[in-house]
Amino acid sequence: MKQMTGQFLESCRLTTGQMASSREYGFNGLFLIPAHAGSNVVFKVICSDGGGWEHVSVSLKDRCPTWDEMCFIKSLFWEPYEAVMQLHPPESEYVNNVGACLHLWKPVAALIPLPPKWMVGVKDLGVLQS
Question: How many folded domains does the chain comprise?
Fold first, then answer.
């Protein structure tokens, strides 16, 4: 995770109520993050960094976050060079406390293995169009 939360994230932190936290908690806490200035889309983001994992849950009131929205949240909490993941555990391990919620995970003591780029897709779309 990033070294510091920064002014923007601190302005989004819930500092009163059941999930209240302060800057001293680092990335642990509840953040209500607007999608962009003037937007009525607000992400409910719960963060933790204990137990050997960095974790961010992202939910919206009436739908799941999109890929671009998850990329935005990832950019707030992790550096561009850091890989994080969404997991699909075995069905026997499913836990669903909040609908329309996605999670980002990063193990603290291990690097996440990544597949070769060629297995994911073509980076230069011009190659496909010629």
Answer: 1
